[in-house]
Amino acid sequence: MGHAASPGDGFFDEWAARLRQSAERPVVGILLRGSHARRGATEHSDVDLDVLVDDASGAGPANGGPHPVPYAARRAYLAESGGRLTHVSVAVRDVRSWLAHLGEPADWAFGLPVTAPARLLWADPRWRPRLDLPVLCQPADEPRLEELIATLGKVAGARARDDHLGVRLAAADLARLCPSVLRLANPSVRVVSRRYAFAAALDLSVAPSGYRDDMLLCLGARPGSTGQLWAAAARLVTGTVPLVRPYADEIAAVAGLDLADALLDGRLDRYLAQLTNPVPPPRPPRSPEPGQPRWDSSPVPAPRAGQWVTVPVPHAPVTGAHAEQTPPAAGGAARPSALDPAIAARLRRTPDGLVAAVVRQHDTGEVLMVAWMDDEALHRTLTTGRATYWSRSRGEYWVKGATSGHHQYVRSVALDCDGDALLVSVDQVGAACHTGHRTCFFTELPVTVTGEPA
To answer: Fewest CB atoms within 10 A around its CB: which of 178, 317, 371, 439?
Structure first.
């Protein structure tokens, strides 16, 4: 559909003169903004005008002069033009506050920088050099990682209280914050309107898996239950943090060194795991039946740091819920998987459909642990960058570090010559062993050589 022509210059000149005459303060400039200024108006578009006023005497409030006009002071009119009514939206603003406002991020731009066309309709000659701006530029917002993390906590809190409306409100706030953080890892983009900002925020090239769908869900542009909203919010944040880890210096400049250090040393991952996998309260001990011995009622010890946990990924992210259990088939791949068929064809699996995975630290070669993967666990490991395994005892997928914070960020995966073992090179955060040791191979065995080698 083509755009409607803007009202003629006579229409704008008439309104500029009318607004200058009716203003209670000296007018120094009148600008046309919005869709008419960027030549994108339709027959339904408003005419947006900024009337900039000043105290010509220079006397401020402290000297008995008038107070600055608030930035949001507005008046509205319905004007007839060409047989149609047009909504004219007028914002009367203090010129100095208006100029200062251009140095601040736009609250509608999802944290992205703004370059919005404008048209100067009239200006006092003394102010014209400062107001004759073909575009109005506003900077990008700071990477608000701290606020993003705090907002995930609000979503978690509302969910724990069964506050469905609170979940939706906090999830929408979280989605609006997310692009300001992801902007660090993405090419620079400038936006001209709220609609363009929305589209640009959804189309960031460096983003977590499922980012666009999760953003639409959290922003209320796609229907979903509160449980789905919570899962989407958790995916957005836990997927964003690894992507901005290389930009810790920029985070430090905004939020301080402690948050930047936490981003690097694993504390932030542990905190997110704490939010997304809350530990259920212990059950109170049962009183013994009359005549029965009283057993020790002390609480069960908490899991040690680094203990493995099971979580469903990536479609049902870190929620503490158990993954669907599928009984393994005899021989071959045990469960349906999206693994590349070319890779799947090279695997030689156990009768349970599994392949051994030897895990090592990528830069030192230190062997950390051995676990098992089926086709789907390997697919998730290769596509999410997070080491994902199959638990034979529990019949579930689990992501290393999802609760403990001792994550494994995958650098490479290699298949051995026989196809029955994988070498997974990772960046290990904290302990790899569920005992709290750095490596599972911490028990040295004596080696006794009884004779000379042949």
So the answer is: 439
CA gap 162, 92 in Å, rounded = 44
- Is 214 annotated as ligand-binding? no
Instruction: State the span(s) of the chain assigned CATH 3.30.460.10.
Output: 9-138
Closest CA to 208 of 170, 243, 248, 160: 243
Asked whether residue 141 is marked as a ligand-binding residue, the answer is no
Contact 143, 166 (CB under 8 A): no
Which part of the chain is CATH 3.10.20.810? 341-428
**Whether 320 contacts 408, CB under 8 Å:** no
Residue 42 Cα distances to 14, 36, 144, 304, angstroms: 21, 9, 35, 63
- The reply to whether 416 sits in an annotated binding site is yes
**Residue 290 has what pLDDT?**
54
pLDDT tens-digit series, residues 381-391: 998 889 999 98
Q: Residue 282: which pLDDT band, with cuts at 50, 70 and 90?
A: very low
**8 A C-beta contact, residue 109 and residue 194:** yes
Strands 114-117, 135-138: parallel, antiparallel or unpaired by DSSP?
Answer: antiparallel
**Domain 9-138 in CATH: superfamily?**
Beta Polymerase, domain 2 (3.30.460.10)
**In 284-297, which positions are buried (b, 16+ CB within 10 angstroms) versus exposed (e)?**
eeeeeeeeeeeeee
The pLDDT of residue 303? 33
Burial of 107 (C-beta count, 10 Å sphere; 0-12/13-18/19+): exposed
Q: How far apart are CA 397 and CA 390, in angstroms?
A: 5
Question: pLDDT tens digits for 168-209?
Answer: 999 999 999 999 999 999 988 889 899 999 999 999 999 999
Distance CA 285, CA 267 (A): 33
* Domain spanning 341-428: CATH superfamily: Phosphoribosyl-AMP cyclohydrolase (3.10.20.810)
417 assigned to a ligand binding site: yes
Peptide bond into 314 cis (omega under 30): yes
Q: Which of 213, 210, 137, 215 is nearest to 180 (CA)?
A: 215
Strand 114-117 to strand 27-33: parallel, antiparallel, or no bridges (unpaired)? unpaired
CATH number of 145-276: 1.20.120.330
The response to whether 352 counts as a known ligand-binding position is no
The amino acid that residue 442 corresponds to is F
Residues 6+ apart with CB under 8 A from 196: none
End-to-end CA distance of the chain, in Å?
86
Domain with CATH 1.20.120.330 in the chain: 145-276
Contacts of 367 (CB under 8 A, 6+ apart): 358, 359, 360, 439, 441
